[in-house]
Every structure is written in C-alpha cells, then in structure tokens.
Write a structure and sequence with these properties.
Largest sheet: 4 strands, antiparallel
Structural class: mainly beta
Number of strands: 25
Strand content: over 45%
Number of helices: 1
Oligomer: single chain
Amino acid sequence: AQSGKGELQCLRVADGQRLWRVNFLRDFGAVFLGEDSKVPGAEEHGYNGTPVIEGERLIACVGGTNGAGIVCFEKRTGKVLWKSQDDLAAYAAPMVATLAGAKQAVCFTVAGLHGLDLREGRLLWRVPIKTSWGRNCTTPVIVDDWVIAGSYQAGLIGVKISSAGGGFKAEQAWLNKEAAPNFSSFVAVGQHLYGLGAAKNLICVEVATGKIAWSKEGDFTTAPNVAYASFLALGRNVLVCTDGGQLILLAADPSACREISRAQVCGMNWCNPAYADGRLYVRDGLKATGHLYCLELLP
C-alpha cells in the first residue's frame, strides 16, 4: 500500500500485520509533490502512481533526486535491489513490458518517459516530456514495441522502441495534440486506443499513426474545468466510468462509437475502478466523504 504522502508499506493479508515499510521522503530524500511542495500547483496532489509488482520485485517512482528517482525493492522484505535516475515522481504508474525483445520497466516521471533494465536499473532509453507543475499524469500504454504517453500540454505521443547497436533507440513517431490527455489514461484493445481527447470528447486513436479513428461528444465528463473519466479494457469492450458516476459499456470498435449499455452506479469520483472475477469495485467522493461499492457485471 502506498499513501499520497510517500509512505510505502507491505501488510500481511491474513491479519494486517506490517512486514516492512519505507518512506520516500525520509529514506530516499525525495522531493514531495504535495503539501509544502516547492513545485507550483502541486500542493493538492502527492504520490498517485501505483507501484508495480514483477515477480519478486516491486518498482516504485520514489522521486529522489540523489539517484533514487525510481527504486526497485524485494517485495517480501523491502530490501532495496537498485536505485536509478534523479527524476522527480510524477503521477503515472510504472509499467513492465517486453520492448524490442527486452523486458524492462517503463516510467513516466516529471522529466519524461524512459525504460530501465529490470535487473540493475540501468537506463535503456529516454524521451523528454515536460509539463507545467510536473503534471505528467497518465500511465503509459504499451502495445507491441510502442509506448504511448502524453500530457495536456505536450499532447499524446507515440514512441517506437527498437534495437540499435547493441542498445535501444526510442523514436517519437507521432504527436497528436487533439488527443492530449489530462489525467485520464488511455487503454488499448488490439491496435487502437480509447480515451478522452483534449475537447473532453471520447476518442479512438490508431496506435501506429496517432490518427483519430472516431470522436464522440457526450456526457463522458461533467467537471467544468477538468476532463476525467476512467477506462478499463474488458475483452472486446471498453468500460468507462464517468466523473459523474455513470458506467458506460462500449464496443471496442475502431469503425464507430457503439454504446452497449449504461447505468448510474455512484456519485462524483476521480478514481479508477478495479475489476476482478466479474465484479467491479468503485469508490466515489472527491474529499473525505464517500463510499466503496462492489458491483456485479452481468454477461
């Protein structure tokens, strides 16, 4: 479990006993993007990027500028296996994927997008992407050797990873400003992405070109200034949870936007639902109040 204030703990499922803990600020000298932050506009944010577990490793965007930007822990003990880079943590979760034949950690930090060797944290490639207030929020989407990420200022960017001279080359192949994400992450089904565009419209984007296959205006987001909806890829469908608490099931069809069904399930939220075994777990409430709902998704 990771808190917004940089506390990372491992708890035993059976009884909640704490097995190990670290604090990003205390133990790694991290610069906190939250209360008392020196980064303008970040006072309400904090750590939002979920760590990723890969085998016996746990990889977290810690944000230490002394070589501990990304840290790999032994998941059962909390032992530090490696530290890498000097990047401040942004708000995106790290990913693990095989790109150009090599399994690696893909991280989207305040400084940009980069890939790290899983065994020792060595930098394999980097693509600079900077945004005001450190707001690189969206989790990268990985399809084959493509890494897609972006921000509300930079736009949506398609990066192709390839082998080159015994190493790796990361080449920005396309940029789409109309598909610029704010803090709503895209999902991939096949060779297309589904998410919110810069105009708060639902869009479908081709992975290889960045071209918009279709765009649909509607009530997918209700907040006046910030566009948000969460997306889950479920087989050949896409489940959208709007910030107003509606669930919308769409066909993952690049030829047209086809809505299958919708239902009002909760109140205002900026939270990604979790799906497991036919059930969806949704949390609402933008401040201290709110509820956790368990919903059964019928076939």
